Protein 1
Amino acid sequence: MGIYSTLTSIEGELHKCMKCGNCQAVCPIYKETRHEVGVARGKISLVEALLSGETEMTEGLSERFSLCTTCMACNANCPCGVRFDRIILAARAEAVRQKGLHSAKAIAFGALKRQGLFDLGLKVGSVFQGVALKRIPGRKSGSRLRFEVGMGQTKVFPNLAKRTLRSELPEIVRPAGTAKMRVAFFTGCMINYFYTDMGKAVVEVLIENSLEVVIPNGQGCCGIPASVNGDVESARVMAKRNLREFENMGADALVVACSSGGSAWKHVYAELLSDEPKWRALAEKWAEKSYDIAEFLVDRVPFKEEGLGRVERKVTYHDPCHLNRGQGIYAEPREMLKKIPGLELIEMKEPGRCCGMAGSFSLTHPELSDQILERKIQDIAQTHTDTVATGCPACRLQLASGVENADLQEDVVHIVQILAESYRAGKLEPRV
Amino acid sequence: MLSESILRELREVLGGKNVLSETEDLLTYAYDATAAMRRKTPDVVVAPKSTEEVSQVLNIAQKYGLPVYPRGSGTNLSGGTIPLEGGIVLSLLNMNRILEVDTENLTATVQPGVIIQDLNNEVALHGLLYPPDPGTVTTATMGGSVSESSGGLRGLKYGVTKHYVMGMKLVLADGKVIKWGGKTVKNVTGYDLTALFTGAEGTLGIITEILVKLIPAPETRKSLLGVFDDVDKAGRAISAIIRNRIIPATLEIMDNMTLRTVENFTHAGLPIEAEAVLLIEVDGYKEVVEREAALVEDVLQQEGAVEVKVAKDEQERERIWFARRSALPALAQKKPTTVLEDATVPRSKIPEMLKAIREIAKKYDLLIGTFGHAGDGNLHPTILTDERDKEEMARVEKAVDEIFQVAISLGGTLSGEHGIGIAKAKYLPLEFGEAGVRTLRRIKEALDPEYRLNPGKIVLRKE
Ligand SMILES: Cc1cc2nc3c(=O)[nH]c(=O)nc-3n(C[C@H](O)[C@H](O)[C@H](O)COP(=O)(O)OP(=O)(O)OC[C@H]3O[C@@H](n4cnc5c(N)ncnc54)[C@H](O)[C@@H]3O)c2cc1C
Ligand code: SF4
Ligand code: SF4
């Protein structure tokens, strides 16, 4: 039985932990709170107490388990190789089995489960924006929305797209001439509803590289927001739905431009469905051919360099946790950026440090999320760049909010948008 | 559970956020990095922000007769922060400011919750260094490492924490605040309180400010690895290096058992057939480093090393030290419980000590990996066991007894750097004798007659 089904499945991970405390050095939450419960070692000891019967599952315990951005920094710094991400996911799933989801979260994930409802939810949201989200006077990027997240703090949201990406694009987009292969694009919710510009850049770049793009209409939420919060049942429903839709359309490879989506297809689906052999096999088959967009364009089908035009940007790159530590992708995005003429890449201090977004974490722990973000924004400010590039729409949202609140003049974009910009510039440049 | 009125008093002094009293939080203060220790939850955890607040906490503790357990990052290896008798855990982590870096007198003044590495990052901006570097340099606090007088990899050349402390501010058991020391190189006014409170493991007072000495950072460094097919040869090489008047910054050893385990864990390309390897680093001015590195290489060869590797670049250097840093965690993976000892002998006795440890392992049929700061004579024989196996644990205890006896008979000590805490309290008479222990107790009782501070550690109440 997998980590999503029983808590005892992670006993081996727990045994590895020797309580050295090395995880303290890197945990973004512990750095802010300095409470032992914030760090991996503290939560590990809580799981141990739970398994030994010293304590039982309480609301309080499940609240402590929510204190983690799942950034995996502790995994990377652990001399014993403890996979804390597995421990926390298993603990949260156990909390939900015993205590049920917090009502608010249950409603959100329930809505995501059936896509029709989620669209409706967001439409309701756009009405709701008038109340909870206050329009702020825009700067160069146009008007933005501020969402009061409590404690007198605000998160700046991008506007909802007028049309979702998937309603705007056809299900199959073909390049001129013969296609090299057929690539399925899993958009994920944030790209579909907020950042359609990112989604369009993905398609544009794939087409530019003579690839046929399939965007199955029936795809939905990746299920990660549910699985990281322990709502395993909802996550399983979403996983199956996506697997079914993509299997029906068929493709040689699958790309994502979102770190949660990538983790879902590569790792989480097979684990979620590990107790159902048929589904598991399907999940493993798709995991094999799933790629992050940067990984795909650097390692699988190297993007063509002829036709790249100058992009005069000073760029700093933020590593999304689930791309960098989750999927081992940190070299590819940089390689991509370095090949773009005119672009200067300037690294920030600790580019791999969590931005504090972590999906619903930023809404359930707004104050902490903001403190973590503040450090990131300071590091960005020190680079004196004009653009922050990243590889995930969730990081983009968080960073854009931080940049806006700090009054920095930085564009915050996905790297694939810069690549698309470069191809576009190439078309305008005189040929030599 | 404490009464609501005590909690209210604490909250009034510290603010609600800095007083933790829910079980879910308390459970995470029941342990530190020490293996095979019984866990014990405190009644409350407080995190003051100033000396004044610490003093008020001690007043409240005195009023209600509560024990107080100071705590930094909880990475010590002797049970030093476990709240054996419940009561108050006093976390110093909120006092984490570097108050001053004085580049003319080469000193820094810090609060106790500052992480060692953070101090080093700050002084590095001025080309300076605070040398004590325990394996936990990125996590351990200044207060905790001063209280343990921690050593580290650089101990051979640069000494240990106690060589860098110049003064302190401290809250006594009765809440009174004292302060002494200063930036002068010389100071013989009164008794040497710095020596008394450094390494006191929180049993005599709560440190709330520390003045430390800094040194100019060495210009460059070079690392070498010497491979030996015989432990005695490795031992003789250690003495030969020193005899040739070279004091490397670092001189470490790993035995065969440790090597195999580390290699299996890190795949760093270590020679698993070797009986022992020495890991050496020399540092200083470029010219001196080149000369010393060449000399060390010669000495190793003369002493019969089957292979000597010199790290060519930062990457190779990092590989060597990564392997060394992985020694303990790698060993810890082999069995559920890792009993790490810290017995230390004069450096010339290292071969004898290594041999004795091997015999003890055989005698009690135990897995023991040994590594450590060979240049300091500070070995870490590490017993791999399973605390659930009662019979084996009984043998472990006998083996530990014997390791201590051998260390002391060779002119050594129970603990080089990890402290006494709970883990080694019962062995104290072995080293000090009855009269010696009585003297320690009289010091303890003079400063803390009610055993308010960290009770159950080092000096126990007379039965
Ligand atoms: C993997 C690993 C490697 C290690 N390597 C080394 C090494 O190379 N060399 C070495 O010497 N040690 C080593 N240690 C031991 C440990 O890291 C050090 O002793 C460290 O300095 C303890 O710092 P801390 O902040 O965690 O203190 P804690 O563990 O929190 O406390 C240590 C002791 O100090 C007391 N204390 C803490 N703060 C104060 C204060 N402000 N006032 C009074 N008393 C206080 C506590 O009550 C306790 O008795 C290692 C430990 C681990 C887990
Ligand atoms: S770093 Fe790893 S082994 Fe050490 S306390 Fe954290 S999780 Fe445990
Ligand atoms: S995953 Fe990140 S936030 Fe969670 S405990 Fe580890 S380091 Fe801390």
Protein 2
Amino acid sequence: MSDPIVKISGLNKWYGDFHVLRDIDLDVRKGERIVICGPSGSGKSTLIRCINALEEFQEGEIVVDGIELGPNLKHIDAVRREVGMVFQSFNLFPHLTVLDNCTLAPIWVRNIPKRDAEATAMKFLERVKIPHQANKFPGQMSGGQQQRVAIARALTMNPKVMLFDEPTSALDPEMVKEVLDTMVDLAGEGMTMLVVTHEMGFAREVANRVVFMDAGQIIEANTPNEFFAAPQHARTKLFLSQILR
Amino acid sequence: MSDIASSSFVRQDLLTERPAPVKTTGFVGLMRTRLFNSPTNILLTIVGALLLWFTIVPSVRFLMVDAVWSGKDRAACLTENAGFAVGACWPYIQAKLPQLIYGFYPEAERWRVNLTFVLAVVLLVPLLVPRLPAKGLNASLFFVAFPVVAFFLLHGGGIKGFGLSWTAGLLELFDDSIIGAGQALLSSSKTSAVGPLLWLVGNFIVLVGTAIHWLILPLTWLRDQIQGAGQSVWTDFAVTAAVVCLIAFGLGGGLRAGGRALASSIFAFVAIAAVIKLMGLDRGGLPVVATNLWGGLLVTLVVSVTGIVTSLPIGVALALGRRSTIPLIRIFSIAFIEFWRGVPLITVLFFATYMLPLFLPGNFSVDGLVRALIGIALFTGAYQAENVRGGLAAIPRGQGEAAAALGLSWWKTTSLIVLPQALRHVIPNLVNSFISLFKDTSLVSIVALFDLLGSLRASFSDPKWSTPSTAFTGFAFAGVIYFIFCFGMSRYSLFVEHRLNAHRRN
Ligand SMILES: Nc1ncnc2c1ncn2[C@@H]1O[C@H](COP(=O)(O)OP(=O)(O)OP(=O)(O)O)[C@@H](O)[C@H]1O
Ligand SMILES: [Mg+2]
């Protein structure tokens, strides 16, 4: 077994007096795909947003590829360069074309010359199957296309880990599939992925481990087969019975 | 069966085209469908027509039909001599035009004003036309080089040193004021109740000042050497250029990638040298024309262009400061904005002109025009800050988060993602403030600066041209000038808005 690329230990976070994350311990090995699920408000988004320091936390430690992220959030920039993120609401930059969305960070963060950045961006746009729309603005595309651009945009930075926060829950059913297909492809290429999703089909097909969260804690973590076939905890059973009706 | 048969139909003769029974096109159609199609519309049409009749017709009569177009003095514009009720007296404007444009700027030197206008237009027009290339160079020429050149053109005068002397002078001034403050404390410690404390603090400050004095001694010594030798400007220039080029080279990436930075800084210095040589700045430059001689459109444009160009960055900085998470910056921004928004511009101008000199250190005087400029820039900046803040508030939080997740720093996120979107949202508000700034420049006449309106009113008192219609003609003329500038800004902003919001149209 290789060393964990993301190592979360003793993570605790409060919003004011509200204890959102409680003693989270989670190791993610290189190339591993983890699906995080759980009822609404259980702290899934908060957890993965802590990994790339979009949220600060009060206790514990997160180590990403050997870079340590403590409560005082040193090394934020170094960590963010290793971690790509895809949001529920896409968050593309509406004033920039698709291509500029994808070249902005390589040019301004990695100081890559514009030409090279554009070539790389086109490569990734091809991978998510929208090379012909490179000069459109995000507002001129469908939700599924936008989300695929968002994935391509994150990939242009060559992240070692990709975080997905409910990437398909703002999409119509037909578009869900195109985005999930893209993510399956990505998984096939060996990307380390942490995915918050309620797409249990995706979890079964792609995940190495499914992590179930409730009330800010990890209740159960298991391989998809075990998880779906024989859930251990009462809350997991309840959740699965509701979601797999 | 019969049902189906009766509902089937085959046309025998094709119908020919025929005109609509009621005309809906052309002038008659327009009248019918848009102007007189309902009682309310009939009423509105009549009111509108009357309004036009009572405004347009008298204006045209006054400005054109009843106007006097040529003459030598007031006699031409008197009803007795003209033989009809005289409207606008254009020869008066013609005679006073130089004063309205240049104020009391000496006649022999007016080519300098014209040259500045020409330079401004030559640099501004390409900047405004999106199709033309080299926006970066163009913008730096207009926003950095042009103001300096314009200053030496309009004001005149030369330079005695360059970067090194200026830096040394500034540091010296700073140091002197520190020592001065320390000594003031020391002298007041003799009479105060908390004397020992003041004595201690005063001594400490004087000590710091002396330390700084020794620290900058090499610099001031070098300055004195350079000033002592002949050709002081060029020696200083060479030293400054060398130092700045080296720094640019170092920061630009040293031997590996610094070539570009080095080349552009060398280019900049060559350009600066050319300007210095061309304008003879090393030999005293052009004759000085004090700002109290400036007037007319010149002052209006100087004040408004400076105000427009400086107020936007001030506004952006304040708006960002107001949203900052650092309490000190936020409180300062809020206090600053609320203060300037809370006082009328007239008060600001009075304060800047008559009270500011009382607050500044003794040997430090600021030109009257500059004081007004600073006051207006800060005043408008506070307004622009609130406009910009409105735009910032309209940007979803996800934008900043997405940029941060990509590894962009706060500065890059702000300047590449947040501000471009925020400013697009508020172009109408920004231009609204620009337009009101342009018109508010006329308030500077209160503090003894003669802008367009001030010069105009000064010209009313000339007995040579005093006729019943002089004042009306003058105000009509000024109104047209103001309108042209404001309307131009308004139309251009619409164009920009349309263009920049391409992404919002599908
Ligand atoms: N900025 C905030 N301030 C205070 N409480 C917050 C904040 N953001 C989230 N919370 C609370 O923290 C809890 C966890 O939120 P989080 O967004 O992580 O849930 P989630 O598991 O992602 O839910 P969902 O499935 O609905 O996205 C929720 O109860 C939420 O109300
Ligand atoms: Mg969530």
